[in-house]
Amino acid sequence: MKPSFVTLSLSKLKLQYELLLKTFPTAKVYYSVKCNPLPNVIKYLTEIGCSFDCASINEIKYAISFGCDAKTQIIFANPHCSQADIDEAVRVGVEMMTFDSEAQLLMMKNVAKPLLRLRPDSQSNQFVKLGLKFGTDSFEGQRLLNLAKAMKKDVVGIAFHMGYPIGPADQIMLMLKEVERLAAFNNLKLQYLDFGGGLMPSGVPIEDYAGVSKELLRIQRDNPGLEIQSEPGRYIVEDAIDFYTRVESVDKNRVFVAGSAVQSFHRDLLLSKKLTLSVVKAEELQKCVHSKKRIDIQVVEGGEDKIVIGSSGIRYDIFYEGKLGDVKAGDYIAVKNAGAYTASCLSDRLDQFSGMEPFQVVEID
Question: Orn/DAP/Arg decarboxylase 2 N-terminal domain: which residues (predicted)?
Fold first, then answer.
């Protein structure tokens, strides 16, 4: 076993993907690549028929490299990118792109299928307020639609993202009504309606959005040929991955590990998510790797105050400060359900900086 690695449950990926399809049977799923771009994840999701929400030209080329069709399976959903990136996306075959400003719309003269991205008012209540960066209000959206008409540019759809976490179903319903209002007022033939991501496997139960699903079906019936799009990331991948890093030494209250918090948990530092760490014996972990069966990671309450320190030379490379059970050199620190916005921080550049080998992915069940 490598000093630091993740286990990836392909069956869990499939289960989460199928739960989305079951809940929103009229929607086409576009996995958010930035949430976790591990090749094992992208390859498997491609194989089971998933499409992709890409936020950069590199993500677009990455998805294409696994056999994804740029024309029908990719949406370039970053409404703030350079003219060069837009032109390159068009060159490789991408047709769907979002915009939320005049500057971006003017750059999209060669884009076949532009989608206006709206900003939900409810984002003021979200933990991650994507509206600070993406989306426009309906008033400005109307002006942009008028500008598109003047440019003789057909806007083919409307997108919105509720933020993270996605929040109650009634907030989504309000946005769906606003999409319909804008489309009707502008005599806009909707080809695409993209209602973003924000779903959490441990958040509002997905069953609570059954009413949203019915409303999407009704909108689809009223707009023949309309494609409903969902852009999950966290919901699919978060609970499919566990992270492990070996304890190299213990000095009183300081626990030194092989992995790097800078690489693995920068997301958690940014979002102030409290990590829950567990201690797993190497022998138990070895059985998991050989059998390809997932360990049921048990969180032990209590213990002594510890500081878990990563191996890079960066001063803030600290995993955790808090209670931790008995831990010895050779044990592994485990973090359960660490699949969202973690592996994307494990860049080759940081690997080189800290002198560590690239991390290993072990596929299980």
Answer: 11-237
Q: What is the pLDDT of residue 273?
A: 56
Residue 303 within any structural domain of the chain: yes
Residue 9 in domain: no
Closest CA to 194 of 32, 15, 12: 32
Q: Is residue 163 situated within a structural domain?
A: yes
Task: Give the pLDDT confidence of 52-62 residue by residue, as tens digits.
Answer: 999 999 999 99
- Give the residue from 203, 232, 261 where a domain finishes: 232
What is the Rg, in whole angstroms, of the alpha carbon atoms belonging to the chain? 22
In whole angstroms, give the CA distance from residue 60 to residue 79: 14
Q: Report the alpha-carbon distance of residue 177 to residue 192 in Å, rounded.
A: 15
DSSP result, 25-40: TTEEEEEEGGG---HH
Q: Is the pTM for the entire model greater than 0.85?
A: yes
From 79, 74, 71, 177, select the one nearest 121 (Cα to Cα).
177
Write the CATH number for 323.
Answer: 2.40.37.10
What is the DSSP pairing of strand 332-335 with strand 241-251?
A: antiparallel
Of 127, 135, 137, 134, nearest in space to 167 by CA: 127
**By the 8 A CB rule, do 110 and 87 touch?**
yes
Angle at CA 42, nearest 5°, toward 40 and 48? Answer: 100
Domain around 289: 237-364
Asked whether residue 185 falls in the same domain as residue 48, the answer is yes
CATH assignment at residue 212: 3.20.20.10
Q: Which of 189, 216, 232 is the last residue of a domain?
A: 232
Whole-number percent of the chain with pLDDT over 90: 61
